[in-house]
Design a protein that fits this description.
The protein has 190 residues and is an alpha+beta fold. It has 7 helices and 4 strands, in the order βαβββαααααα. A 4-stranded mixed β-sheet has the order 2-1-3-4, covered by helices on one side. A hairpin with a 5-residue loop joins strand 3 and strand 4. The longest helix is centred in the middle third of the chain and has 22 residues.
Length: 190
């Protein structure tokens, strides 16, 4: 049984919060479909999308939970106990970063908050090509989502201040799953 994602307009107008989920499924080579919430979305899971029905038939909602579960099931949540904990923490950190960007806390005339987050991300990239290890994890897929929001809503004052993030973005752009998303022609964000 393939995975089923329920999201607005079947993610045909924009990927939105399905982006990290689809990146995980594509990276793992998992079979999935994207459906309208009105097309059989399970009841009692939550009312906000995305909702994902797993290959086992169980369903869950809320992007961080979905990604935590997918990370475990698809082998994209870190391989050591330390990496697994770091991955879970970074999922939540990147959700916070995207939430703050969307809420307008990254003000162009007051770049301190954006700098705090980007400096934190820069430090997390010191040891590995990706956030948790030298292989991508679900934390990276959330970070890609968060960085897209930062790019959309905030002009980073001096991108050269973050050379590891620059290299990281280039590595993420080369992932086959990201190339497939970009080739779809569907915008990542609304």
């Amino acid at each position: 049984m393939p995975y089923t994602i329920y999201y607005h307009n079947k993610s045909t107008r924009f990927w939105g919060r399905t982006l990290p989920i689809v990146l995980a499924l594509e990276t793992a080579g998992a079979e999935y479909t994207v459906k309208e919430p009105t097309d059989g979305m399970p009841e009692g899971v939550g009312f906000a999308v995305p909702v994902v029905t797993l290959a086992c038939g169980h369903s869950t909602s809320q992007m961080p939970v979905i990604l935590d579960v997918l990370g475990e099931r698809l082998g994209l949540g870190g391989s050591t106990p330390e990496q697994k904990v770091r991955c879970k923490q970074l999922i939540m950190d990147m959700m916070d970063m995207s939430s703050e960007a969307i809420a307008g806390k990254f003000e162009k005339d007051k770049p301190a908050r954006a700098d705090k987050w980007l400096s934190y991300l820069e430090k997390k990239l010191a040891a590995h090509k990706f956030l948790v290890s030298d292989e991508p994890t679900v934390a990276d897929f959330v970070a890609m989502f968060a960085l897209l929001w930062v790019d959309k809503l905030f002009e980073v004052p001096n991108a050269s201040t973050y050379p590891k993030i620059t290299a990281y973005r280039a590595a993420c752009a080369e992932l086959p799953a990201m190339k497939k998303i970009e080739a779809s022609g569907v915008p990542a964000l609304p």
